Amino acid sequence: MNAEQLKTIIQAGLACEHIEVTGDGVHWEAVIVSPGFEGKRKIQRHQLVYATLGDRMKTNEVHALSMQTVTPAEWAQLNA
């Protein structure tokens, strides 16, 4: 799996306004901006992303994923 494939999988299951994925093929970092995160706690946001990955997390296709999950409004504040 490469970063572009992981990005595509996440985008297919979650509406994203912005997404960045980096990593070494085993350990990944992602910045995900989605309106679907509105009103959700951090753990709920992460669960939404994990749901898009399905069994890939269980089979170690994606071994580790560190995420920054933010709403579009939070993203705007971070980049102001």
What is the compact description of this entry?
The chain is of the alpha+beta class and 80 residues long. The protein has 3 helices and 3 strands.
Walk me through what this model shows.
- The protein is α+β, with helices and mostly antiparallel strands and 80 residues long.
- It has one domain (3-78): BolA-like (GMP Synthetase, Chain A, domain 3).
- Helices cover 38% and strands 25% of the residues.
- It contains three helices and three strands.
- The protein has helices at residues 3-13, 42-53, 72-78, and strands at 18-23, 27-33, 64-70.
- It has a three-stranded mixed sheet.
- Strand 2 (27-33), helix 2 and strand 3 form a beta-alpha-beta unit.
- Helix 1 (3-13) packs across helix 2.
- It is globular, with a radius of gyration of 12 Å.
- It starts with a helix and ends with a helix.
Layout of secondary structure:
Layout: H1 3-13, E1 18-23, E2 27-33, H2 42-53, E3 64-70, H3 72-78
Parallel strand pairs: 2-3
Antiparallel strand pairs: 1-2
Helix pairs in contact: 1-2
